[in-house]
């Protein structure tokens, strides 16, 4: 599938430090040290509605990692999926009487436009579930061969008991898993299952639903195995970072790791599991199913500067849970106007120490709020100078434009 165009990213004269991130599976900070390209898989959208601020926050969060790795001298191989066939998409399509393929294409295209406007660096491989069905079938065959798949009516299930490390990614106990599972697409009470936590990997064809042929009859992929199959195909096992929002810790990323580790015992799925916090609106997690949404495209259509949207996101640490407030957007608009005034002076307070501070803040678990504070200090110093004489850096604005763009994705 086509991704979106890449923004121009300035090359910085100095290299950033190695990048540390918080790994959910060990609840501690780690510093991946890739030998070749740094490999990252981030779970993409289910395209049945427009991109909301919560999605944007997650993708901007991982964009900071992408940029930090590049600034630390690594090439990055970034893969993202599109869940372009799944229950919520089919349900929405039926409800609004739109063909599901059309709905998915339309919302994916809007997502591309939103990501382009927010200057998110695109994945090298942007891969749909539908186009990956042969990969899913092949992975189920491998899992079947090692005895971890069983059939319930026309559906196939993965036995979580086949994975000795089941639970290691989320760190959750069984009671908590059982509580969360049905809230996130699981079916613990289905008759015929060996373990309530077993997850569906192939859903046999139902009347009125799309289906594709397989050795077990026509059907469509389960959600978790889609991401496992795509990640293994484009990145191989033991890649650096599996990412997404905290709503994917369990069951999605746990199951994904399970599928991969049972298919290829001894190889970790991902080295590190990184999760972005949840954005709320009106007191609850912003979600398509609840409908409490602020759409990126709606803001853009009302002439909001996408860089102001991005600045609001950057002012919250990617791991924190926070609530969208319109007032923060207007504050970001004012801040950008002030930053642009300082940059327009050309000369300013010394910029090289600011570059170092910005890069090291981002290498410290993507601390964009701290990076933003370093920029603000430069702006204050620059606008506060009466005569930009002694302490002045003639090239300051050029240096600042570059680091704002390369590290924070803010093109001012
Ligand atoms: N297609 C699956 C992943 S394979 C999916 O979860 N799609 S989604 O459209 O529901 O979410 C897309 C991404 O945005 C996921 O990484 C999810 O974790 C993240 N996300 C969803 N809602 C929020 C929110 N309110 N705040 C932050 N991130 C969110
Ligand atoms: Zn996923």
How would you characterize the overall build of this protein?
The protein is of the alpha/beta class. The chain has a domain at 21-281: 3-Layer(aba) Sandwich (Rossmann fold), CATH 3.40.50. It is 41% helix and 15% strand. It has helices at 53-71, 87-95, 100-117, 133-145, 174-180, 223-235, 249-263, 296-301, 306-314, 326-344, 352-363, 368-384, 396-408, and strands at residues 21-23, 28-30, 38-42, 76-82, 125-128, 149-152, 155-158, 199-204, 219-221, 239-245, 270-276, 279-281, 284-285, 322-323. The strands form 4 sheets. A 5-stranded parallel β-sheet has the order 5-4-3-10-11, sandwiched between helices. A 4-stranded antiparallel β-sheet has the order 6-7-8-9. Helix 7 (249-263) links the parallel strand 10 (239-245) and strand 11. Helix 9 crosses helix 10 and helix 10 packs across helix 12. The chain is globular, with a radius of gyration of 23 Å. The mean pLDDT is 96. 5'-O-(N-(L-cysteinyl)-sulfamoyl)adenosine is lined by residues 43-46, 54-55, 57-58, 81, 83, 227, 244-245, 247-248, 276, 278-279, 285-287.
The helix/strand class is alpha/beta
The portion of residues assigned to helices is: 40-55%
Strand order of the largest sheet: 5-4-3-10-11
Q: First CA to last CA: what distance? A: 31 Å
- What is the general shape? globular
Largest sheet data: 5 strands, parallel
CATH topology of the domain at 21-281: Rossmann fold
- Helices, by number, come to 13
Q: How much β-strand is present in the residues?
A: 5-15%
* Element order: H for helix, E for strand: EEEHEHHEHEEHEEHEHEEEHHEHHHH
User: What small molecules does this complex bind?
Assistant: 5'-O-(N-(L-cysteinyl)-sulfamoyl)adenosine, zinc ion
The CATH class name of the domain at 21-281 reads: Alpha Beta
Mean residue pLDDT: 96
CATH architecture of the domain at 21-281: 3-Layer(aba) Sandwich
Spell out the CATH superfamily of the domain at 21-281. HUPs
Number of strands: 14
What are the segments in which pLDDT stays under 50 over at least 5 consecutive residues? none
**What Rg, in angstroms, do the CA atoms define?**
23 Å
